[in-house]
C-alpha cells in the first residue's frame, strides 16, 4: 500500500479557506452546519468536503489556516528589523492585530473545541519560542540588560499560555489582543537597561 500523498490546495481552495476564515473569525464556527457554510460561501458541500471530510475537521483546518496565515504576516512585519526591542514590539503588535480580527464568539468556539484549542496552543508555544529567541538576541546585542533570558522567556511563555487558555481574559477582563499588547509593554519595560 502506497502512502497517501498530500496535495497542496488549489488556488480556489486557498481562496475558499480565506473566506471561511473571515466568516469564522466574525461569527464563530460551532453553530454553523455544512449546509449553512455552503450557502454563505455560494459553494457546494462537495467543495467543502474536498477541503475536509467533516465539519469538525473543516473547522480545525480553517483555524489552522488562520493561525498559519497570521504567523506568516507577522514574520513579514519583523523581517529585516535588527533591533531586538523593535522586533518584540512589532512581533507582539502583530499578534495583537491578528487576534483583534477574531470575534469573541470565534475565541469561545476555539476554547470549547479541543482540536481547535490544540491548534491555538501549538501556535502560542511557537510564539513563546520566538520571543525567547528575541530576548536572547537582545541580551547578546546589549540592548537588554543582562537577565536570565531563558527564565524571562519562560515567564513570557506562561503568560502566553494564560492568554491562550482564557485565564487572562477571565481574570483581567481583557481580550487576547489587549493581553498581548500588555505583554509587550511588560517585556520591553522590564528588559530595558538601567
Automatic annotation (TrEMBL):
* Pfam families, per the entry: TetR_N
Report the GO molecular function annotations: DNA-binding transcription factor activity; transcription cis-regulatory region binding
User: So which residues are the signal peptide here?
Assistant: none
Q: Does the keyword DNA-binding apply?
A: yes
Mind listing the UniProt keywords for this protein, alphabetically?
DNA-binding, Transcription, Transcription regulation
What top-level branch of life does the organism fall under?
Answer: Bacteria
| InterPro entries hit by this protein | Homeodomain-like_sf, HTH-type_TetR-like_transc_reg, HTH_TetR, Tet_transcr_reg_TetR-rel_C_sf
Q: What is this protein called?
A: DNA-binding transcriptional regulator, AcrR family
Amino acid at each position: 500500500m502506497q502512502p497517501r500523498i498530500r496535495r497542496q490546495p488549489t488556488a480556489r481552495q486557498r481562496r475558499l479557506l480565506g473566506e471561511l476564515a473571515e466568516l469564522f473569525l466574525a461569527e464563530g464556527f460551532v453553530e454553523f452546519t455544512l449546509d449553512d457554510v455552503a450557502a454563505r460561501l455560494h459553494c457546494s458541500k462537495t467543495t467543502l468536503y474536498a477541503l475536509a471530510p467533516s465539519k469538525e475537521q473543516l473547522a480545525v483546518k480553517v483555524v489552522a489556516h488562520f493561525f498559519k496565515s497570521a504567523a506568516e504576516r507577522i514574520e513579514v512585519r519583523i523581517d529585516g528589523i535588527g533591533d531586538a526591542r523593535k522586533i518584540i514590539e512589532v512581533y507582539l503588535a502583530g499578534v495583537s492585530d491578528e487576534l483583534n480580527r477574531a470575534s469573541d464568539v470565534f475565541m469561545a468556539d476555539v476554547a470549547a473545541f479541543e482540536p481547535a484549542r490544540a491548534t491555538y496552543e501549538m501556535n502560542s508555544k511557537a510564539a513563546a519560542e520566538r520571543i525567547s529567541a528575541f530576548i536572547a538576541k537582545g541580551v547578546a546585542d546589549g540592548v537588554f540588560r543582562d537577565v536570565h533570558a531563558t527564565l524571562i522567556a519562560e515567564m513570557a511563555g506562561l503568560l502566553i499560555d494564560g492568554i491562550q487558555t482564557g485565564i487572562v481574559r477571565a481574570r483581567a477582563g481583557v481580550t487576547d489582543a489587549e493581553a498581548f499588547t500588555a505583554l509587550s509593554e511588560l517585556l520591553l519595560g522590564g528588559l530595558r537597561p538601567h
